[in-house]
């Protein structure tokens, strides 16, 4: 084997092992929470020895920081694809479909995201990164509101964005607590609640975007 190929192969094996350990950690954090989780439990979930785990992570905190960073980055990238002028111009019901469904799907597929940030003992780095993500999301919601309803003042946009996000988070907790058809039903309830709350502020119809921005008001 050429000498230059060996480091790349070792690096690829190491990346696969790290991914395996992070996936196992996510499962353990979801089952027992961050506080009760141990490196031994994570290693056992991954099917490796504790010694193998320590080759990549010195402790549970390092694992949580790495996992939290990855999940926050995935969510941040998703924000950029959802809160766009194109989506803002859609009829309200359709806009909620294309924004709310992917956000709920992300949380359903990555339950460790909320399991980490809701644990009081989670490393401060994870909490700070989540707080930055939360602020970024609120800014994007405010921007979307401004695109749909430019007549809203900055104070009104901030208040409506905070309320809408609060409704979403409350509904998300119920969605995650159920499965199957009941979960689907709660997803529908979340979107119905957001529709009813937002309609008086942003209208229900499509918004005609111009080169200068949105039309003066959303279509009722």
What count of domains describes the coordinates?
2
* DSSP strand count: 2
**Level-2 CATH architecture of the largest domain:** Orthogonal Bundle
In angstroms, what separates the terminal alpha carbons?
A: 69 Å
Q: State the share of residues found in helices, binned by percent.
A: over 70%
Structural class, from secondary structure content? mainly alpha
User: Could you state the order of secondary-structure elements as H and E?
Assistant: HHHHHHHHHHEE
Number of contiguous helices: 10
Query: In percent, how much strand structure appears in the residues?
Result: under 5%
Largest sheet: 2 strands, antiparallel
The Cα radius of gyration reads 21 Å
Arithmetic mean of pLDDT: 90
| The first-level CATH class name of the largest domain | Mainly Alpha
Strand order of the largest sheet: 1-2
CATH topology of the largest domain: Tetracycline Repressor, domain 2
What characteristic shape results from the CA principal axes? elongated
Parts with pLDDT < 50 across at least 5 consecutive residues: 1-6, 216-220
């Amino acid at each position: 084997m050429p000498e230059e190929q060996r480091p790349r192969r070792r690096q690829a094996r190491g990346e696969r092992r790290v991914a395996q350990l992070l996936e196992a950690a996510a499962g353990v954090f979801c089952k027992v929470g961050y506080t009760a989780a141990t490196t031994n439990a994570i290693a056992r979930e991954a099917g490796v020895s504790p010694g193998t785990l320590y080759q990549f992570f010195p402790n549970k905190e390092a694992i949580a920081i790495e996992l939290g960073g990855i999940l926050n980055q995935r969510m941040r990238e998703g924000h950029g694809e959802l809160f766009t002028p194109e989506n803002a111009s859609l009829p309200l019901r359709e806009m909620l479909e294309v924004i709310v469904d992917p956000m709920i799907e992300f949380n359903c597929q990555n339950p460790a995201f909320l399991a980490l940030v809701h644990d009081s003992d989670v490393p401060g780095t994870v909490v700070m990164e989540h707080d930055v993500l939360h602020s970024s999301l609120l800014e994007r919601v405010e921007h979307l509101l401004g695109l749909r309803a430019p007549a809203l003042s900055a104070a009104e946009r901030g208040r409506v964005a905070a309320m809408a996000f609060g409704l979403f988070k409350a509904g998300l907790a119920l969605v995650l607590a159920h499965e199957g058809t009941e979960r689907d039903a709660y997803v529908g309830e979340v979107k119905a609640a957001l529709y009813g709350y937002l309609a008086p502020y942003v209208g229900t119809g499509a918004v005609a975007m111009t080169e200068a921005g949105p039309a003066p008001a959303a279509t009722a």
